[in-house]
Amino acid sequence: MAEARLYKVEVILREEKVEALVEELGRRGYSSMTVTEVRGRGRQGGWQEQFRGRTYVIPFLPKIKVELVVEESDLEPVTAAIAEVARTGEIGDGKIFVYPIANAIRIRTGEEGAAAL
After folding, report:
1. I want to staple 114 with a disulfide (CB 3.0 to 4.6 A). Which of 4, 46, 57, 100 is the partner?
2. Rounded CA gap, 50 and 18, in Å?
3. Is 63 exposed, middle or buried (0-12, 13-18, 19+ CB in 10 A)?
4. What is the pTM of this model?
5. Cβ atoms of 90 and 61 closer than 8 Å
């Protein structure tokens, strides 16, 4: 039997969407993930604010990065769920990146591949 292909799904999204995303992925059976606070900018190029007559440029906006590894058969449903939950239709909704994974190893047991997930 061929080993299942694994993929890392990396999502950069708005802070206010994280709780809903974690709940939806958990509801669908994908509860293992890493969540990191990050700062970044896309096409919007940051943010400008006026305060007491002065313009302040905020070059990097606070975002959240969510990372999870899934089998190839789960890739489309997971990315579709992420896009559905994260989308507001406004600039700054974020990105989904997908990377092939050569292997995964559970340190405690030594299990590899999909069994390590």
Report:
1. 4
2. 28
3. buried
4. 0.86
5. no
Name, in order, each residue with C-beta under 8 angstroms of 73's C-beta and a sequence gap of 6 or more. Answer: 4
3 state DSSP class of 84: helix
Where do we find the tokens 């809903």? Answer: 20
Task: Give the 3-state DSSP-derived string for 4-44, with helices as H, strands as E and coil as C.
Answer: CCEEEEEEEECHHHHHHHHHHHHHCCCCCCEEEEEEECCCC
Please choose, from the candidates 36, 96, 33, the residue with its C-alpha nearest in 3D space to the C-alpha of residue 24: 33
Helix-, strand-, coil-residue percentages of the chain, each rounded to 5: 25, 40, 35
User: How much is the pLDDT for 113?
Assistant: 94
CA-angle at 16, arms to 13 and 22, nearest 5°: 70
* Intra-chain end-to-end CA distance of the chain, in Å: 18
- For 55-88, the pLDDT digits (tens) are 888 888 999 999 999 999 999 999 999 999 999 9
